[in-house]
Amino acid sequence: MIKNNIKYxxxxxxxxxACEPEFDNPIEETNNFTSGELDLSNFVALGNxxxxxxxxxxxxxxxxxxxxxxxxxxxxxxVGGGEFTQPLMADNTGGFAGxxxxxxxxxxxxxxxxxxxxxxxxxxxxxxxxxITANLGxxxxxxxxxxxxxFHLAFxxxxxxxxxxxxxxxxxxxxxxxxxxxxxxxLFSLWIGxxxxxxxxxxxGTGEDHNMTGNIDPSTYGDSDITNNGVFAQTYAGxxxxxxxxxxxxxxxxxxxxxxxxxxxxxxxxxxxxxxxxFGPQIPTLNATYAGLNMAFAALGVxxxxxxxxxxxxxxxxxxxxxxxxITANLTVAITPVxxxxxxxxxxxxxxxxxxxxxxxxxxxxSRVIGQVDTDRVAELVGLGxxxxxxxxxxxxGVTLPLTDQYVLIPAEQTAIKVAQNSYNETIRNLATANGLxxxxxxxxxxxxxxxxxxxxxxxxxxxxxxxxxxxxDGVHPTPRGHALVANGVLDALEKTYGLVVPRVNPGEFGTIxxxxxxx
Length: 520
Known about the structure:
Blueprint: E1 43-47, H1 49-52, H2 61-65, H3 68-76, E2 107-111, E3 117-122, E4 142-144, H4 163-166, H5 176-182, E5 187-191, H6 195-202, H7 210-213, H8 229-243, E6 249-253, H9 262-265, H10 283-299, E7 318-320, H11 328-339, H12 343-350, E8 353-355, E9 361-362, H13 375-383, H14 388-393, E10 408-409, H15 411-434, E11 438-440, H16 442-450, E12 454-456, E13 459-461, H17 480-498
Parallel strand pairs: 1-4, 1-5, 5-6, 6-11
Antiparallel strand pairs: 2-3, 7-8, 9-10, 12-13
Helix pairs in contact: 3-17, 6-15, 8-15, 10-11, 11-12
């Protein structure tokens, strides 16, 4: 059998430090700093996990302490900024006590006995102690709620659907924006909308695109659906109207390109090494086996479906592409002379199959399954009368068993994401301009991180998984160093719009990811 042999982690020789708060620099009095037009006595931040400080697949204390709003609040103190409170979790393990299957602990980077990086794994050095049922009974300046979509912020009783908000909601019918306004903020930030497309993206496009369905009822949306552009525009405008009422000042942040973050750029489209001792020697056998199938593809007029593994270069995985015409019936007839009784099963397996190309994006979680034997598929085939050995050979994920939709973003799905994101960002920018609010293009800033990196005093921040310093081990959320970049971007926007002048933070003083072998 072919074993999984995807090594996508670089050796982390430099720049790997623990994720700890870095607010030890004393505030110096100077006449060069000014709050400009801003009253910074009561800053309130609204958003989702990006605002809350979620990182490494979990919410935990040091991630929250290094959230971009908390970093901003420390800089605001240079000009008399007020206290900034957050609904801190109970520990640095993350997750909820007794609910680790649904809300797991944070990820840490594991090394083997040769100090080679193995990959992320859930931390087990201490138990999760945060009570999922406890309400903290207080209001907080950080109103970031992991998992929230745009329309969730104004949904009454959202806490009944989201335990992160339930921990600090003011009543059973509270809305996130309502509780935020009850604090009477003097300055607000709003970074929302990522989850309106992110669930679709991270699920490999398995959800519905409601710009295609035309569904404008968000109460019927699934977690992996794309929010309709019109729904987003109306919802976001309502949030801004409420937050900016009476001339309240604030900053709006647009959405980064989700397909440029490590979750989508780490696993190459051709990750199987032909030189590997488990995969390489089997290439001639695989290609001989696929020869009959490829002849059928050519005879049926779809030669682009041909599957061939290279003996000289990395090999592309086989994927199921549901946008292709299903040719199972005709393929069955064409391959029966070669494969006999197995023809219907093989045809069904490859009726919508093709090899991945460089235009496809394999999600980070695909690295766990490519090259593994799907034991459920083996059992299914054996139940259909396929011999055990043949069943095993037909069930190697991404090699003989096409990788399913949840692990790949094909070009059409990427286009759906981009169409929605562009529309959302146009809404955000236009509303910032119309209301005289500060605006931050996080899409532009994080594109720079992804396309070469951002220099700082002591190094460079990139989007390279694990070693780049910008993204945590879930491949989606920023590290403290990444949050420092976000905070600086917001400070730039507040200076441009309102004349705020305070020091920028040095990203090099903030941590990245945590290394630990305290895992099961």
